[in-house]
Specification:
Helix content is 84%, strand content 0%. The protein is mostly helical. It has one domain. α3 packs antiparallel against α5.
Length: 247
């Protein structure tokens, strides 16, 4: 097997500087997760709705009505769900930070020993761990405890409003393609055109998510496409059964 190309090429110092300048990856990965989840949910949910309705009837007005209703309800549901969950997370993080502030004010020596112990658990010898803890306490004790003990960055708490808006936008963006595909396609080929459009969209979102996250593209694309095809097959089958039963 051929050797992998060097990450840094001929400039390791430049590579390290660029990596440091990019900052923490956690926020970017959380944003990517929310965007991909919202877009995929919009694609698959709306495609499932309109394909299911098309299984029962090819009436354009019925399909459009169901699709718009699904898009609106889904976008609002995503926004409310993200707002509630992120608000709960943010409230919990604020409570933990407040407790940490009180502990630092009321028992500074014990908190210093606790931080030193955490660094010992990471592999530092006791003397070095204590010195690191002292320097970090002198610089920003709350940030040191929040990041090491709680896994929280006090300066980067997620905004529930941003999360809600981003989820609603990504869901709506994903929903538009299957809705337009099934509404604009000729009656005889509405379903196959929509399936093709959805598969193409899921391939794209899978590829973009893998590129942004640095993971293998094939696996992400396969998950997206397989899940979307399964959802459409199930809803179309149910729509056909309902249509035959009512017919």
């Amino acid at each position: 097997m051929a050797d992998r190309p060097s990450l840094a090429g001929d400039d390791p110092a430049g590579y390290q500087a660029a990596e440091a300048a990019s900052g923490s990856q956690q926020g970017r990965l959380n944003g990517l997760r929310a965007a991909v989840l919202g877009a995929n949910d919009g694609i698959v949910s709306t495609a499932g709705i309109v394909i299911g309705v098309a299984g029962a009837t090819l009436d354009p007005f019925a399909i459009l009505t169901a699709g718009v209703a699904g898009l609106t309800a889904g976008a609002l549901s995503m926004a409310v769900g993200e707002y509630v969950s992120v608000s709960a997370q943010r409230d919990t993080e604020k409570a933990l930070l407040e407790t940490e502030r009180r502990e630092l004010a009321e028992m500074p020596a014990e908190e210093l020993a606790e931080l030193a112990g955490l660094y010992e658990q990471k592999g530092l010898d006791p003397e070095l761990a204590l010195e690191v803890a002292r320097q970090l306490h002198a610089h920003d004790a709350l940030a040191a405890h929040a990041e090491t003990e709680l896994g929280i960055n006090p300066d980067e708490l997620t905004s529930p409003w941003v999360a809600a808006f981003s989820s609603a936008v990504s869901f709506t963006t994903g929903s538009v393609l299957p809705l337009l595909a099934i509404v604009l396609a000729p009656v005889a080929i509405k379903v196959p055109v929509t399936v093709a459009a959805v598969v193409a969209a899921l391939v794209l979102t899978g590829y973009l998510s893998s590129r942004a996250g640095g993971t293998p593209a094939g696996r992400a694309i396969f998950r997206n496409v397989a899940g979307g095809l399964l959802a459409m097959a199930v809803t179309y089958g149910i729509g056909r059964l309902v249509g035959l039963g009512l017919g």
